[in-house]
Amino acid sequence: MHTFIETRYSNHPGDVKQYDTSRLREHFLMENLFVKDQINGVYTLNDRLIVGGIHPSSKSINLETVDQLKAQFFLERREIGIINVGPTTSIDVDGTTYELANKEALYIGQGAKDVVFHPLNSGDTFLYFNSAPAHHAYPTKKVGKDDAEVVTLGSLENSNHRTIYKLLVNSVVPTCQLQMGMTELKPGSVWNTMPAHTHDRRMEAYFYFDLEADQAVCHYMGQPEETRHIWMKNHQAIISPPWSIHSGAGTSNYTFIWGMAGENLDYGDMDIVAPTNLK
User: Fold this and answer.
1) Where are the domains of the chain?
2) Which annotated residues bind Zn(2+) (predicted)?
């Protein structure tokens, strides 16, 4: 057994107002996603998304089912999106091999049984994934940055000049409910997702990477009128419930992966909160 998935329950916003730093981190932060030759993650009851990291180092590892799913195999009733945050590597899906370069994505639909992740000789394979319940079997598809829907937003003057790569979204690849993409901040910019927003129709998870070891990101969450913050490092992820804003500012520029699951596939479905209205 090399797959370890922790269950985390949903949190009422009224309760979260009482959390101290350690409890906020315990409920929402994922600190150690990458463990050698393991698949590690969190099964959150917020839209039942699974968020995790895959780190084959000395051997190939299979995507195993876990107790939370009560399924014969992991993707029996699920879909999964995988984004490579390390060097070029390969993934086998039911006998077909897909090569993923850095920052390329792979969507695997419901029903795929045999998914194998292969190590590099250097042991530096790092794959980040989100998985959501699925009601239909859509085909497996690789999506590179050149295939993505790309939008550049913000400005250096506002410290939020960034390029958004919509990789696994319904305008690029059909999915049941999973949506994933990646945002790269330009040098000199540190703010992501400004203005902040919520969307009651779906939850979201953020994964931060391309961040130097001596740098950090301050991630903001909570209701707009009652915000909280959590300091994060490279290769860490965080859960954002539907009622919570999700935004961050780093001590340098970085890249982050956003993933969503829930009621609405419309990327633009956001309830914007003006910066002057945050408290």
Assistant:
1) 3-277
2) 197, 199, 204, 246
Q: Does residue 238 contact residue 41 with C-beta atoms inside 8 Å? A: no
What distance in Å separates the CA atoms of residue 276 and residue 279, rounded to the nearest whole number?
Answer: 8
Q: What is the pLDDT of residue 265?
A: 85
160 contacts 125 by C-beta, under 8 angstroms: no
Residue 1 has pLDDT above 90, yes or no: no
CB-neighbour burial class of residue 46 (10 A; exposed 0-12, middle 13-18, buried 19+):
buried
Cβ contacts of residue 202 below 8 Å, gap of 6+? Answer: 47, 177, 242, 260, 261, 262, 263, 264, 269
CATH 1.10.3210.10 fits 3-277, yes or no: no
Q: SS3 for 230?
A: strand
User: Any binding-site annotation on 79?
Assistant: no
Q: In this structure, are residues 115 and 63 in contact, taking their beta carbons and an 8 Å threshold?
A: yes
Q: Where are the beta strands (DSSP E) in 224-268?
A: 226-232, 236-240, 247-250, 255-262
pLDDT at 194: 83
Write the pLDDT tens digit of every residue in 120-166: 877 789 999 999 999 999 999 999 999 999 999 999 999 999 999 99
Check the annotation: does 118 bind a ligand: no
Taking all residues of the chain, what is their mean pLDDT, rounded to a whole number? 96
Would you say 230 and 238 are in contact if contact means Cβ atoms under 8 Å apart?
Answer: yes
pTM (global) more than 0.85: yes
CA angle 130, 107, 42 (to 5 degrees): 15
pLDDT, position 122? 75
Give the span between the Cα atoms of 124 and 250, in whole angstroms: 25
Confirm or deny that 12 is annotated as ligand binding.
Answer: no
User: Tokens 């859509």 identify what position?
Assistant: 138
